[in-house]
Amino acid sequence: MTKLEKYKGIIPAFYACYDENGNISGERVQELAKFYLDKGVKGLYVGGSSGECIYQNVTERKEVLENVMAAVGGKMTIIAHVAAPSTRDSVELAKHAESLGVDALAAIPPIYFGLPEFAIRDYWTAMMNASSLDFIIYNIPQTTGYALSVNMLKEMMSFDQVIGVKNSSMPVQDIYLFKRNAGKEIVVFNGPDEQFVAGRIMGADAGIGGTYGVMPELFLAANQAIEDSEIEKAQEIQIMIDDIIFKMLEAKGNLYDVMKAVLVKRGITIGSVRAPLPRITSEDMSIVEEVYGMIELAIKKYSL
Ligand SMILES: CC(=O)N[C@@H]([C@@H](O)[C@H](O)[C@H](O)CO)[C@@H](O)CC(=O)C(=O)O
């Protein structure tokens, strides 16, 4: 088994778990982490977009990771997204993550100001230098405004710690582009859940996604179908997944709040989203019901 094997598979992007007052709930974090452990996913991606990291302070982000590690540390692969607006906070989070024994760090590029590539490199290397952990570049141009270039990829790949890219850019060809130009074996994680199967076919080794958490069974089944070269089955499951995602996106409230409401129906309560993310409305509840039904039906169809 190569050292990259532990990253290959289905890795839900962990949701922010709050109590009824909107504070981090360690108890709920642990409950959600154990739910995913029971489902058999490969690992968890903690503190990313789905973790609402942008709206949490450093202390809160540490508390989330501490509770994930307390619940499932050592039992599954844990990737800690540690990027924060300042390099200083990101470095602090990187050191903290290493002290807890996570497997890898991940980071988006710096946000808000459009910075030159040398500054982005310095931001990432500061986090790497603060630990000895594997490091994953998080490419998500649609939210950060920076699209990973091949030159930057090559420069970053010269660091031994850099083992992969979580790629959330929309062109599926980027997956191959990054693998082709990395100059070494890397793991590419598919980001857009709507094209997970396409991403795997184009060479993604794994997937990290925000909607996995509400229907992990379906992504596990799609991944298994790919592994078994059952492409038609994989496509069929992907289409069901997309119908579910498109339905959730019809809601007025934020996608994460829709998924949190669906999780309640699946027996897991993790609170709502933090403002400015809009909460679901009473009219959105029919979408929640419908989505829950669609997930149940798909699970039944494939006896998952
Ligand atoms: C732009 C965006 O948020 N992309 C999501 C997707 O999982 C996305 O929610 C999904 O494809 C639905 O559109 C992930 O790539 C983000 C993610 O995994 C994370 O950091 O939480």
Describe the structure.
By secondary structure, this protein is of the alpha/beta class. It contains twelve helices and eight strands. It is globular. It binds the ligand CC(=O)N[C@@H]([C@@H](O)[C@H](O)[C@H](O)CO)[C@@H](O)CC(=O)C(=O)O. Residues 13, 48-50, 140, 142-143, 168, 191-194, 208-211, 245 line the site of the ligand CC(=O)N[C@@H]([C@@H](O)[C@H](O)[C@H](O)CO)[C@@H](O)CC(=O)C(=O)O. Ligand SI3 binds at residues 13, 48-50, 140, 142-143, 168, 191-194, 208-211, 245. Pyruvate binds at residue 208.
**CATH H-level superfamily title:** Aldolase class I
Largest sheet: 8 strands, parallel
SSE class = alpha/beta
- Indicate the CATH architecture: Alpha-Beta Barrel
User: Which ranges are low-confidence, i.e. pLDDT below 50, for 5 or more consecutive residues?
Assistant: none
Percentage beta strand? 5-15%
Strand order of the largest sheet: 1-8-7-6-5-4-3-2
CATH class: Alpha Beta
Portion of residues within helices: 40-55%
- What overall form do the CA principal axes indicate? globular
Domain tally: 1
Oligomer: single chain
Q: Helical region count?
A: 12
Heterogens: ligand SI3
Q: What is the string of helix and strand elements?
A: EHEHEHEHEHHEHEHEHHHH
Gyration radius from CA atoms, angstroms? 18 Å
CATH domain fold name: TIM Barrel
